[in-house]
Amino acid sequence: MESIKDKVAIVGMGCTKFGENWDKSYDDMIIEAVYEAYEDAGMDPKDIQAYWIGSYWSGLPAPSMPVSTILKVGYKPVTHIENMCATASDALRNAAYAVASGVCDIALAIGAEKLKDSGFSGLPTDEIAMGITSTAPNTFRSRNFTAPGHFAMMASSYFNKYGLSAEEGKKMLAKIMVKNHHNGSLSPKAHFQREITIEQVLKAPIIAWPLGLFDCCGVSDGAAAAVLVRGDKARSFRKDPVFIKALQIAVGWQEGYMNPQHDWTTVKETVQAGLAAYAEAGIKNPRNEISMAEVHDCFSITEAVIYEDLQFTRRGGAREEVEAGTFELTGELPVNMDGGLKCFGHPIGATGLRMMYEIYKQIQGKAGPRQVRQPRLGLTHNLGGTPGGATVSVCIAGP
Amino acid sequence: MMVGIKSYGIYVPYFRLSRAEVSKSWGGFPATGERAVANYDEDTITLAVAASRDCLGDSDPQEIDRLLLASTTFPYGEKQSAAIVAAALDLKKQARTLDLSNSLRSGMTGVASAVEAIHAGTSKNVLVCASDIRMGLPNGPRELEFGDGASALLLGDTDVIATVDGLLSLNEDIYDVFRPVGENYVRAWEDRFCREAGYTQIMLESLTAAAKKFRLTAKDFSKAVLYAPNPGYLAGVARAAGFDLKAQVQDSLYATVGNTGTALSSMMLAAAFDEAKPGDRILWAGYGDGCEVIVLTVTDAITRIQGRKTVQRHLAAKQMLSYQKYLRWRSVIETEPPMRPKPEPASAVALYRDRKCGMALYGVKCKHCGTVQYPVQRICMNCLSKDDFEDYRFANRIGRVTTFSHDNLAVSPDPPSTVAVVDFEGGGRIMMDITDRDPPEIKIGMPVEMTFRHIRYVEGIHNYWWKCRPVR
Q1: Distance from first CA to last CA of chain A, Å, rounded?
Q2: A377-386 and A290-294 strand pairing
């Protein structure tokens, strides 16, 4: 089995402002992100040889066709990818594999989602997605809970396992959210761009106990795109391409729903995708070798557990690292420099490429007030599903 | 042949509504006591399943060869409710199922039919269940009088706790209490007519006929268990029939449960059984479009099951409910719909294919490695063996909460929605809602039991599955 390390490079990226984009359609956002990427790469749209579009709910039932129409791709291959909240990372992965295999030299990966045309808060229910194929979840085994409810169960179990009172646990989580809000305030394309205080987080209404309003990420519209080329030709496009070092994905079998051995204080898919990515990139000590990470903070507890699952700290060590400021912008290993899902927002099918957009800009030294000092390797961690059953993508990129 | 009752069970929903709160809301005469209210996720079917499970305990449901289900509030006009209850109880396919409807005495008519079937030798073990959630209009007497509940009796000809010694039936065409098809609320004529020309006259006529037929007088009975919508009606008939109110007449559960319609006669009988002594003779009568009278004699076997404290246990497990929540749960008032996705209709095909795992709560146990798993799998999650499983039922097993959440974003008539990861004694895990709970009581590690519930109603299909609740 070969590694993808340095075989593919990103030479152009684009990302819309995330948020409640009332005046922008799915089509508008795709055009905006894709044309920013073309311009960044100095690329003629006609040079793209194949397209991968990641969307979860938008553009159904066949988003590959709308994308072909929006961009007028002219009878070229277009493929729709769906892998829950890790959709855009998987669009990137598939486009990169096509380039690495040599079947095309230039490919475009797009992630896009229009959530706020729905008329309600939160995500569509699973039954909406599953109901299309009339599978069992819309008949039996229907549990009445939402995404916050799922991740809240991880918080309950985590607090219990490590002996944290609800107050102690919520305070640890609040500090993570205060960090991401600070970073978001420095991020012009973020959905939420304001600082918050620990007190605000702790006093916010409960969404799903023990998680409150500020423990939950935004529901946003947005799109992002990346132009991928062969690694050996990358420098003919620009002087500072960003090379892909690892692209891994791990999909679980919903063990958390079926196996009493699974205790909901870890996401095994994150552990596995992380191990595979570190091996592919040749990383021995993630804490020292990774300069920065964009991780899937859909909820505050998710980010805390990711620190442990990706070996940024030991099991149960999240609290002391948060106290020490390890993952702050000025800390030893900055995490979610652009505000993360919490503040940049979370348009499901676009998020993975938004994460890579920040890593790409950071490595090129273009992150402005958020710039991490001399970053080497950056990591993106994109989680779809729930702690009990997830699809997790880990990508590592660097100069 | 000793034909009679082998076991009994009841179900009183967890929630109670104070009659004083209701009458105060409308500025009416003060009313006393409380009435049982079904949770928002309960209906006639789920109440029937709960009472039947209470009656059957750990006995093998496959031994039941007939299920008679009585109610005036079945969820479907066409589609048998008894078959739904049979699926949830995991009865055998050859069990004969029948719905008995439209009369408040249909539960007792079912008992009489069961006795006749057993005498005729066409059935060995007959489960007769009665269940009702009847509605009275707000600010009316029936809203206060009615209670929700169910009862179940297992009849057979061995190990009976009470023999059935005599049956008498009487029919009458009268508009005292009635409900036309298509209406939700029970109507009644003037109370004086209902009481005098209806209940009192017909009950007394039947009791007199029974006394004559069986050559027994009031003094021959330890207990008179007489259906009555309220204590006033009961006292009038009992006195006129020659019974000593204090010593002989079974309380009608009005102060604690309310009039549970078809289920009330058997619920009152259960209360009498809880206190009965071997040799006691019981006069049991049910009213509605006439009357059923049944004479019973309690046997020594009664002491075997009195330890269950059937009625006492159900009355003790309760939480008071606000009138506002009652109005919402029973859809009496329309509320602002949530800004959330609309529930999807169920697929009849998927329901059909998945009914054993869904309705009877069957998982599987791997024959190769012994790992228990839910829902039904074809590839073992532990050893990857393919299609090498035996059936494994979770319905009567106790689980423990491994983790949980109270979800305020989920749409629920009783927010927050409480969901848990439940791990079972003996293996297996199911993620499920916790119902009949007070949120602060939910703790990691607490034991929970399974309860069959109504999940949703979309486009004509009532969808059921299982939830868990704190062990009561």
Answers
A1: 24
A2: parallel
Measured in degrees and rounded to the nearest 5, phi and psi for residue B318 equal -160, 160
Cβ atoms of B36 and B67 within 8 Å: the answer is no
Q: Which CATH architecture has domain A147-217+244-398?
A: 3-Layer(aba) Sandwich (3.40)
Does the global pTM surpass 0.90? yes
Across the interface, whether the CB atoms of A145 and B375 are under 8 A apart is answered: no
**A153 and B404 in contact by Cβ < 8 A?**
yes
Is B399 an 8 Å CB contact of chain A? Answer: no
**Looking at beta carbons, which residues of chain B come within 8 Å of A154?**
403
In the numeric block, the tokens 């990966």 are attached to A109
End-to-end CA distance of chain B: 37
Q: In this predicted model, what pLDDT tens digit does every residue of B49-66 receive, in sequence order?
A: 999 999 999 999 999 999
Helix or strand or coil: residue B386? strand
Which ranges in chain A are annotated with CATH 3.40.47.10?
8-121+221-242, 147-217+244-398
Q: Distance of alpha carbon B395 from its chain centroid, rounded?
A: 17
Residue A194, φ and ψ in degrees, nearest 5:
-140, 150
Sheet of strand B281-287: strand arrangement = B96-101, B66-71, B126-132, B149-156, B4-11, B162-171, B290-298, B281-287, B223-226
Burial environment of residue B7 by CB neighbours within 10 A (0 to 12, 13 to 18, 19 or more)? buried
Instruction: Kindly report, residue by residue over B3-45, the tens digit of the pLDDT.
Output: 999 999 999 999 999 999 999 999 988 899 999 999 999 999 9
What domains can be seen in chain B, in order of their start residue?
4-329 (3.40.47.10), 364-470 (2.40.50)
The CATH T-level fold of domain A8-121+221-242 is: Peroxisomal Thiolase; Chain A, domain 1 (3.40.47)
Decide if B340 and A154 are in contact by the 8 Å CB cutoff.
no
Q: How far apart are CA B37 and CA B45, in angstroms?
A: 15
CA distances from A106 to A43, A50, B16 (A): 10, 7, 69
Picking from B25, B31, B47, the residue whose alpha carbon sits closest to that of residue B142 is B31
**Nearest residue in B to A253, CA atom:** B381
Which residue from A19, A21, A47, A20 is spatially nearest to A34, judged by alpha carbons? A47
Q: In Å, how far are B15, B329, B330, B337 from B334, measured between CA atoms?
A: 21, 10, 10, 9
Q: DSSP 3-state assignment of A8?
A: strand
Please name the residues in contact with B267: beta carbons below 8 A apart, sequence gap of 6 or more.
Answer: B10, B12, B149, B151, B253, B257, B260, B311
ipTM score of the complex?
0.92
